[in-house]
Amino acid sequence: MAALLTAVSSKGAGGLAADDTQSLADCFLVQREALARFCRARLGADAEVDDLLQDLWVKVDQLPPDAEVREPRAYLYRLASNLMADRWRSSRRAAARDAAWRDAAQGAGDADDRPSPEVEVIARQRMARLRAEVERLPDKTRTIFIRHKFDGLSYAEVASEAGLSKSAVEKHMMAALRRLARAVDR
Amino acid sequence: MTRDDDTLIQAERWFVALRDETADAGAWLTFQDWLEADPRHAAAYDSVEALWVSLDEARPEIETASIIDLATVRARRRLPAWIAPGMAAAAALAIMVGVWAQGAGGARPVMYATQDQTRTLRLDDGSVIDLDRHSALSVTLERGRRTVVLTDGEAAFDVAHDASRPFVVEADGRRVEVLGTAFDVVNHAGRFSVGVSRGRVSVSPQGAPPVVLTPGQGLRQDDGQAVQRTIVDAEALTAWRDGVMVYRDAPIAEVAADLSRRLGRSVTVAPSATSLRFTGVLQWDDEGTMVRRLEDFLPITAKDAPDGVILTAREVG
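Predict the joint structure of the above. Result:
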């Protein structure tokens, strides 16, 4: 992983001058175009990123003015990334809401109206495979994965708790993710 | 190893690396370079991120024997700044477990209340609270903790991970403590219930030991009654946020109580109808429409009452 990170990019807009003293809001205004480019790199060159940047601005604006943020630029990229991850959550909520509707209204309405139950069965099987694979992870990997993913500990906290280096923790996370991806890749 | 596998593994490496909250701007820009190098890279990264989100629901069950004591876990992490160094570990633990001493920041609570509409609150820490109709709560965000007092009604919580400050919901002497999770709490007319959709919470009922709940698990305690463990459907639990109420074999009294609370009107059940149970979905609408829908589903008639309706068994002619 170190190899991927040492090749520092010189193509990023605005260079990498230190900007720790800039407020997050000011940083956002300066970096807006760069953040737009980042969002398009994730979502596709034609993607509509204005709404996303607006949501990002709302999040930044809501922070208390004296909130201290180390590395405001990195923080903004992370916030943008979290917003993009949220779209998976909304579409999952919508799909689950439809499933709840179908579950509760069993027997009501025409058979033709209801979508095939196979899609739901497949989703349930997928979740069952994921759960089973989490159980099958080697003990140390499993503990590290659970502490970070579900208990919200940072890599530094997990490393300290497990008596390992941060890069060892990342290797365990990598191993866990690889196995989980393979478990549902059929 | 195929080229696709290779790309996927690279995407996984990036995903894991960027989960490090100390990653600097250079790391994000190098990641951007990788994304822009080939359209397949973004697609691969999407699939890793989607997998990560879907794993929210894959937390393994905690066996009773190995329930992690949340208080002990918190004590191992960094302590709030106002705890003086050298303070005995036991004393520090007692402070963190029990009722917190006077809040460190002196932050003031912010009150929220709803009438006929639900409301979504986005907190400064990134958490989202959906407040049901005719509900009220207060929010206090301080440096070492985040506290919500649910004075009345129902709220669904989507709590942002922040290991340095536990998120606590209080409801008439009970506590729900979370680390980063999604759950629903009801506190109304003597009824208290909690259901968990994602993550894990610790619930301290009145006069009973704390209970840890995982996704799909719930707890209910009516005033003066024993604690009941329940099974909840993670999505049905909070479907009310989308104007949909899902019931599976629920006693009609529960449906009536929910309608009553959300309408701010009296919806009661006559003795002749109390044994009825309801399975179905109620779309939120005006009172008349929802009551008529219930009459379609169940053998009941709604009779007028002061300030509301009484659901009575339909007479068979």
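DSSP finds eight helices and no strands in chain A.
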